[in-house]
Amino acid sequence: MGGLAHIPILSTVIFFPLVGVLFLLLIDKENESVIKGTALVFSIIEFAISLPLIVAFNSNTADLQFVERVPWIKGLGIQYFLGIDGISLLLVMLTTFLSVLCILSSWSAIKVHVKEYMISMLFLETGMLGALISLDLVLFYIFWELMLIPMYLLIGVWGGPRRIYAAVKFFLYTMVGSVLMMVAILALYFLYYKATGVYTFDVTKLYQLNLPVPAQMWLFAAFALSFAIKVPMFPFHTWLPDAHTEAPTAGSVILAGVLLKMGTYGFIRFCVPLFPSAAHRFTPLIMTLAVIGIIYGALVAMMQKDVKKLVAYSSVSHLGFVMLGMFALNMQSVEGSLYQMLNHGISTGALFLIVGMIYERRHTRLIVDFGGLSKQLPIFATFFMIATLSSIGLPGTNGFVGEFLILMGTFKSSRIFAIFAATGVVLGAAYMLWMFQRVMFGKLDKDENKVLKDLNFREIITLVPIVIMVFWMGIYPKFFLGKMEKSVSHLLTQVNKKVAARDTLDNRTKKLADNLWKTKEITVNRVN
Amino acid sequence: MTSYIWLIPFFPMVGFLINASIGVKFKRSWIHIVASAAVGLAFLCTLLIFVDLLKLEPNARHIENVLFDWIIAGKFKTEIGFLIDPLSVIMALVVTGVSFMIHIYSGGYMHGDPGWRRFFIYLNLFVFSMTLLILGNNFLLMFVGWEGVGLCSYLLIGFWFEKDSAANAGKKAFVVNRIGDFGFILGIFLIAATLNSKGIWSLNFSVVFSHAGLFTTATATAVTLLLFVGATGKSAQIPLYVWLPDAMEGPTPVSALIHAATMVTAGVYMIARCNVLFSLAPITLDVVAVIGALTAFFAATMALVNNDFKRILAYSTVSQLGYMFMGVGVGAFGAGIFHLMTHAFFKGLLFLTAGSVMHAMAGDLDIRNMGGLKKFMPATFWCFMMATLAISGIPGFSGFFSKDEILWQSFHRGHLFVWALGTIAAGLTAFYMFRLTFVAFFGKPRMSEERKHHLHESPKVMTYPMMVLAVAAVVGGYVGVPAILGGSNRFEKFFEPIIGGGGHEAVAEVAHVAVHASHSIEFLMMGISVAVGLIGIAVAYLFYIKKPEIPVKLASGMKGLYTLLYNKYFVDEFYNGVFVEGTKKFATFLWQKVDVGIIDATVNGVAGFVEWSGLMIRKLQTGYVQTYAFSILAGGVVVFIYFFWESLF
């Protein structure tokens, strides 16, 4: 890392958007174009600041990199502890990447309270990055909750007609999970103290704790519920279609692209390594729910009348793949799962952007209102087609690499899950192409559609980076897989070691107990 | 030249990129030239590589070029690499050669179409994907090509997307193919899982096949059956053939190239490529042979009564693909590929002539509106005749050699049922092809006077490629003249090195059944198949030239059978009613009843309950001191009783 070691680059990455917020506060409310321009410039600089992370990242180690560690509240063992590894690196990049596109896409879609909107966007970026980079549970929790507020505002203020309902539902649902997680964090904190006599929220220290299985199960359940709501896993997903349909385009892109990944990231960063024995025991349940999610999400998506809702349900299906791969717990499946997180951010992000573009023109998202748009909007059609193909995992696009690795890995460990999950690939093609056909093909028979204008320069600029990523990640995945390789293999080794250690310990105790019981039996016999 | 295999897919890719980007500024003719030149160069490269390959010792004819590592995850590694051997070089020659002709032809056929540039972009993308499929040196790359050609097929079937029927057909093709691909990818997973557990982390063909010994018969059977599911999708076999007839909605050059000559044969190629694995699974081979024979037969019956020029040819393609599967299914992999090649010539040609006829008939495809076209379009007619004679198995024409080889091999290797169905289907083939010939090209013109006035031969840009293919359709069979006709079946010999291997006894056994059978029996069989073909032609002549009232009587006499055939056994209706509508109903149920009715209602119910409890509890906050005092008192009493109770026990 050399010279970079002296610069607190992670803090800069996290807090730079707030500098943007300060600037925005100084600008006059009426001066909308300056506000937009400032926000855009800051998001671009932010992306540029995050680029050295991927360039200087050392792929040959599983160690945390760019670490910053300062005691914060000493008495309670709370630290300001930042660091990234191969698991969080690419998600951080995805966040800074999508944020730029989101601000670009809001250019003409947001007409009221532009200043507040841009402030919320930048605030949200800080929250998300903080949650991804923090390695102290309290710090993580703060950022985790911090994300909620701007997202709540984005949906509640700039959303569609049922925005209040959707925003409250989103907020409360996530809150319920968060509260449980907080309780679990505290429990873990005290358990660690009991075991070592040290108070700490440092995740890397807590990793070393190997709790008895029942304790692991309870804590896992509390964390998992919180993350499962966020993912969202079936059957905790119903807030998602509402939130997505009501949120403004950029809100949906960020929600799908990054916020949902917080759930899956939480699983892989906290649930699995902290409570590996519990993870093993919960695997059948989680994989079952994941497969149900894949098929259920796809089927429900198929019948949706609103394009945005369709994409929202497709997210449930895609995130089912992510969860499936993660809990199959082998190299291929976990790497595939991480890859699929990025893919989903890119392809579903693209789909939401595209739906937003057509909504801005037509003020409807109902499939029946369209038809034959390919004729009128050829450039739009090309982008839409590429996003669709990436979403259904066509080889050569990013989606294929993720799905392939997940399914192949899962097939090795649990065949039947992989077989059922693979039907999702067929269903995915069916619902996406059917939607595409009804929107883009057929006769251009509605007068409102005959006057639509094709994409403008700004919109093309918004979509081109995504298209580049779709093919880059599809054709040369080595670049990305290489970054995560060491961290994933380290994680899996640690998990296996911990599980084995726990099992040996439990077996020994069990034997001891058995012997004890036998002795008792003998005693009882003797008495008789 | 053999270290430049990658150039073959590279040129079409370049053509695609040029036309897709700066092609916007091109004149129409330039787009056509770029696209055709790209494929022409690919063909030239293939030829040069073929020549180089011939110079090598037969056993050294296996060359791989690896470009770069593609997916690496843990120990698993797969690369972007290409393989040239007798099998892939033959395929590549056929694909790039026929594609080149059809690219040229399209310049005439698509003349004036507003989607001109889009058409050639898709077409080049197709050739790229197809060559990737053929030349990929591992299962995953083959799968990439496999899905890629599926995409192009989807885009090109739905090329005239404003027509609902075209958009529907495209979607149907893609989704049905995905069902097949579901099997294919599971097959790949099973191969990977089997080998990974033994410490082999590659999907490279040579690695997999050289470790074929690690597959038990059961695993090999499962793997090959799954792969075959993929083949039934791509190559339109029972039960997944339903998309191909609908695919005729696409422009006719597309039908010729993708849905007759090249893409649909990918399944046959895949089985020939995996012959080592298939040979380990005799059950699968039987399944392949029987499905092939059934498809050959049933598709031929569906072609008997159809009145749509292109759809007759489409059912014929399904039927002929059935023959290829019969060939590979009985273990005669070389014969299957041989028929694949001759079929690419004559069926590609048949579709091009169909396009030429459509051109003249202003898009009308109903053969009842044709008749006497021979006079108006002699070049088209003669090309059509050459192809028809070839497909009907008339001695001397290419189809005769390849079809006869398949039938003979089925008989010889003891698959009598397969042979019998194949032979009957050969008779049906001759009948429906000559029915088409007589109705469309002979007799009195039945079209309107106005249209008759406009009938014309197609321009040279269309007829010349047709003539080239006509020559191939006639002479293409002479590379594989069997020994009993004084040939030495060079095709079979060239092909030999790719069959078998993997050190498995069973493999060698299936692949090289001793070909020592009595010549008299072979002659007899040949005679039977020729006779059956001639009978088919004779019956067609009787029905449609001599006594046209017979088929009308037959149709009314056997109303039930006629309706059944005319409606293609109602299979489409069945699939639609059961699978499509069933899925939609189930999905609607999940959405409205489960998602909204149960899951979300529960969530909102919990929220409602909390709200309700809040409202109730709020009522306690009355603000009256008396109430508060009372509750304090009541609380005190409860606490007192609790402790009192405790002390009692």
Q: How would you summarize the topology of this molecule?
A:
The complex is a heterodimer of chains A (528) and B (649).
Chain A: H1 9-26, H2 32-56, E1 65-73, E2 78-84, H3 89-105, H4 114-133, H5 137-158, H6 163-196, H7 203-206, H8 213-230, H9 239-246, H10 249-274, H11 276-302, H12 307-328, H13 331-362, H14 373-376, H15 378-391, H16 398-413, H17 415-440, H18 447-450, H19 457-475, H20 478-527
Antiparallel strand pairs in A: 1-2
Chain B: H1 7-20, H2 28-55, E1 63-73, E2 76-84, H3 86-109, H4 116-135, H5 139-157, H6 164-196, H7 205-210, H8 217-234, H9 243-246, H10 252-261, H11 266-273, H12 275-279, H13 282-304, H14 309-329, H15 333-360, H16 373-376, H17 378-391, H18 398-412, H19 416-441, H20 449-454, H21 460-475, H22 490-495, H23 505-511, H24 519-546, H25 549-557, H26 559-566, H27 571-618, H28 625-648
Antiparallel strand pairs in B: 1-2
Helix pairs in contact in B: 1-2, 1-4, 2-3, 2-4, 3-4, 3-10, 3-15, 3-21, 4-5, 5-6, 5-10, 6-8, 8-11, 8-13, 10-15, 11-15, 13-14, 13-19, 14-15, 14-18, 14-19, 15-17, 15-18, 15-21, 17-19, 17-21, 18-19, 18-24, 19-24
User: Using CB atoms under 8 Å apart, which protein chain pair has the greatest interface?
Assistant: A-B, 60 and 53 residues
Give the oligomer, counting copies of the same chain as homo and different chains as hetero.
Answer: heterodimer
Categorize the overall geometry of chain B: globular
The number of distinct β-strands of chain B equals: 2
What strand line-up does the widest sheet of chain B have? 1-2
H/E element sequence of chain A: HHEEHHHHHHHHHHHHHHHHHH
Approximate helicity band of chain B = over 70%
Number of helices of chain A: 20
Description of the molecule:
The complex is a heterodimer of chains A (528) and B (649). The N and C termini of chain A lie far apart (74 Å). In chain A, β1 and β2 form a beta hairpin. Chain A has one domain. Chain A is mostly helical and 528 residues long. In chain A, strands 1-2 form a two-stranded antiparallel ribbon. Chain A contains 20 helices and two strands. The C terminus of chain A is likely disordered. In chain B, 73% of the residues lie in helices and 3% in strands. Chain B has 28 helices and two strands. In chain B, β1 and β2 form a beta hairpin. Chain B is globular. Chain B starts with 6 loop residues before the first helix and ends with a helix. The mean pLDDT of chain B is 88. Classes of the chains: A mainly alpha (528), B mainly alpha (649). At the A-B interface, α6, α11, α13, α16 and α17 of A face β1, α5, α6 and α27 of B.
